[in-house]
Amino acid sequence: MSLDPPTYLNSLQNNIRARPIPWEGAVRAGTITDNDLKRIKAVDKVRKDQRRQTVEEDTDAYRSLLLGGDQGKSVLESAAKRADVIQYILVLGGDLINDVPSLAPALLEHSSPYKPFLPLLSHSTNPENPIPLLTSFFLASLISAAQTDSPKSNPQTDEALSKLYKYLSTLTKSQDSGLQDIAVQEYSALLRTKKARELFWKQRQDTLNPLIDILRAAAGAGRDSDSTMWSGGTSIRSATEAGLGGGVGLQLLYHVLLAIWQLSFEGSLIGKDLEKEQEILALYTQLLRLSPKEKTTRLLLSTTLHLITPSANRSDLLPVATTVRLPILLTNLKARHLTDPDLLEDLENLTSMFADYTSSQTTFDEYASELHTGHLRWSPPHRDANFWRDNARKILDENQSELPKKLVEIMQKKWENEKQVLAIACNDIAWLVKEAPEKRVQLEKLGVKARVMELMADENEGVRWESLRAVGEWLRYSFED
What we know:
mainly alpha
């Protein structure tokens, strides 16, 4: 399958096509052969129909030109010291694959269809160097064709795909949105088979994580600062008017969401770990608030549905989605004038799923689910005296003190950019001690008292106040004893 090049890459290709190449001099220098030159000139700067006819009449010759064979090396290997020739051949090769549908299958019949191209991905460490960029585009087209031709796993294709993923990740890590968009669009062309998606997920430190960083920037929250995402305080309308954060353009946002949507077809494989590693539901909930177009909203909803729907994921992801107030946001979305039928169907499916889930949840379940997310916000139970009176002992005793241990785990983190989490944890400790004073020793053994006393010296006023209140409850019952 051929690709339509992104604007940045299209401009580069056009500039290379317009450059004069001293082909006869290259022949005299032994850089290319007479036969190479004849084949190049027969398809260079001619009409598409003529180019197609020429290649189809001698497909073997053009396979040998690009990949080498019995008659000699690939022109890319013989011209290794001529960057201008390599760039021209890479552009011409991409044009041939695009204009001659039968060429890609013919190339894939070669014993080593990727061999001349893979070394060119590491030609330079400069992300703007044309040779790796053009090579990646050619390889994305060829590998995409290989996947279409034979969806089953192939060792050579898998190796080439892994190396291409690695290279593309260097582009997504750059600060140039044009380079990022090239990589993301090529990812999207490649994520068409189960094997490609599984390999992408396996290499997620390189492939997926930079895409999540782009989405975090768009949502206005860095990797270490998720308070915006968890607060849920931005309305759909005001967020849309404010635009996207981090200078992320709508086109790049759409392409990143599209690639992750394709990956989400492996929801059973990735759902729980994606939430654990990236807090994806909080991120997507915030992006839904900010989503400026129906096409981005559609991808956000569909991806969320893919992740939550597998039965193995529901017990982990439904509580998290409820904690980040996704069901409330879905209700708000239903009030908007939306027209996309796929979007409306996914919205209805998600709404029904959450309605079934929340109808069976108690306030205790809501609190326990929030603790299990590893993140706290000022949800209603935290300040509800009746909740603590009714549930404090249950929280402390149920499942071998699982919830207090989870609370301690949260408290042990520094939360440098989200001090509110520590303040809420201290609030909860104060309530537990107040309503179940006989359980103080149990909490002390877990290290709760020592940690709360440490937090009395925290730089954040809210944390100091809540920790002081917790220590006050401890001391009150100590004096009474």
